[in-house]
Amino acid sequence: MKKILNRSGDIVTQSIQGFLAAYDKYFEAVPETNCIVYKNRRKGKVSLVIGGGSGHEPLFSGFVGKGLADASANGNIFASPNPQVITETAKAVDEGKGVLFIYGNYEGDNLNFDMAEEMCGFEDIKTAHVRVWDDCASAPKERIEDRRGIAGDIYVIKVAGAACDAGLSLEEVLRVTEKARDNINTIGLATSPGSIPGLNKPTFELGEDEIEFGMGMHGEPGIERTTMKPVDELVDRMYDELKREMSLNSDDEVAVLVNGLGSTTLVELNTVYYELDKHLKSEGIKVHDAEIKSWCTCQEMGGFSITILRLDEELKKYYDASCCSPYYAREALI
Amino acid sequence: MKKILNRSGDIVTQSIQGFLAAYDKYFEAVPETNCIVYKNRRKGKVSLVIGGGSGHEPLFSGFVGKGLADASANGNIFASPNPQVITETAKAVDEGKGVLFIYGNYEGDNLNFDMAEEMCGFEDIKTAHVRVWDDCASAPKERIEDRRGIAGDIYVIKVAGAACDAGLSLEEVLRVTEKARDNINTIGLATSPGSIPGLNKPTFELGEDEIEFGMGMHGEPGIERTTMKPVDELVDRMYDELKREMSLNSDDEVAVLVNGLGSTTLVELNTVYYELDKHLKSEGIKVHDAEIKSWCTCQEMGGFSITILRLDEELKKYYDASCCSPYYAREALI
């Protein structure tokens, strides 16, 4: 494993500094942290702060920008940001209308963002939070609050950003964002591990011909370890899980994300969509929009996930609002 | 090597069909080919057609869109499109104002695009071409026409697209595009091979601790094979090559692209920019714009390249024009 890194110095700090140097027209640091702020952030509205462990780029910093988050609170590699830097980040963007936090549902993040909300309270900053738990392979539906947040984070952030832009109150932004969170599900599949930057250690072990359905971004257990299969069989299985989970039917209109986990190529991800499209068409599900991106990664991990967001008219309006960051631009191409 | 592909069927066709299914609002196929056309392509202006071998995604199809190319002619994996499909693609977008072809300077592409231009001539379609040869490690300056085209393709396409949009004549679009091509250089570095989809074969061999400066996308020889080094030393060496090649100095204003070759993560690519930024700043070079992307890849190849485009007022105007495709959006975030 050859990682292109320095011999010394903090890996996350150098990476964030590089990102800020390249995109300095758009972003600046929250002083003395690895957190970033969009220079042209919202004024006079509810602010949106996202965050979590580093190592999953472009998530989270790549989703700060126009129509998206005002700031991201970035932790160390695979580790939650601490309550102090989350609070500093919220203070840097608060406009007196309240701050919504969106993050993946992980124990460390839950603890630290909860403490940050307490600290914000001492500073008279109104807060609320949405924990994304889209990974339907990570726990049964009855224990939905044990599920992990993965690629579904991104569409939840997208919808929340548009709701903030629309000038809604914190309570209303929270309602809309929870609606997005409650209508999104993801299932992933791992073919090979990523490595932990700086440690040169794989994040998990998988045999030469093994794959695991539902494996988490950091190697958390999935729902089935099996042998490698052709993509049509992989997508069949994954679509069935999502269909059952979401009771998908021909009345549904959805936004879809095929997300690469790191080293899986676009030739492969496009082929995943080629197979997925057959299911969606044959079931009569209306695809309002689709993306094929490597947005929520775990270093050079191999594999992909499929995310489906069920839309109603309200969610569609916010999903369709334009947005722009170095990694996510949504405007009418036509 | 576990590639997420089908047991049978054409790999490129399935991949392109998947891309078209996901982005069907924007693109359609040139009938009976793997070539794609932007549905809202230019009207009454010079048309821009790009192309080359598949396997380097998002290049080329990812750079078809608003302000970019009208169409891409896509070959098989690592193989040039044939003259017939190039001609069909040109016919699908020609508006009687002429078609400019942009492609990387490879023997197969040169031959096939030349034949396509002849065939277009029989159909009374006026054509011109620009071969991109930005890879300064692939041949000495005196034999510039032996150099390969790599990530520099993208900014050349960007400038050309804006020149087409501006309503310039074919001769003028050609002049501007050649100016971009003549002011762009790239140097790459390989840390590990990609694999050939369908063959499960690495594209080249590199030892456990070996890297190669200047190695081509398909494993073509570079300028030095050496042991792995920390990123500051890698970037030092690469910046020196570009500086000498381009005689970079403090009068220069540039656009920069740090491009990942496939599996190299954003933590690493951001760190490359962190080091590169020190050189650019200490030399007083004005960075007009920068991107950190994996735009020109070779499957899961490891490594990166650095591209520098020297700008004058004319090139800057075209570089700055807005553009939008699923992979390249340029609009003022601010």
TrEMBL record, chains A, B:
InterPro entries: DhaK_dom, Dihydroxyacetone_Kinase. The keyword Kinase applies. Keywords: Kinase, Transferase. One of its GO terms (molecular function) is glycerone kinase activity. GO terms for biological process: glycerol catabolic process. Residues 7-328 form the DhaK domain. The keyword Hydrolase does not apply. GO terms for cellular component: cytosol. PANTHER family: TRIOKINASE/FMN CYCLASE (PTHR28629), TRIOKINASE_FMN CYCLASE (PTHR28629:SF4). This is Dihydroxyacetone kinase DhaK subunit.
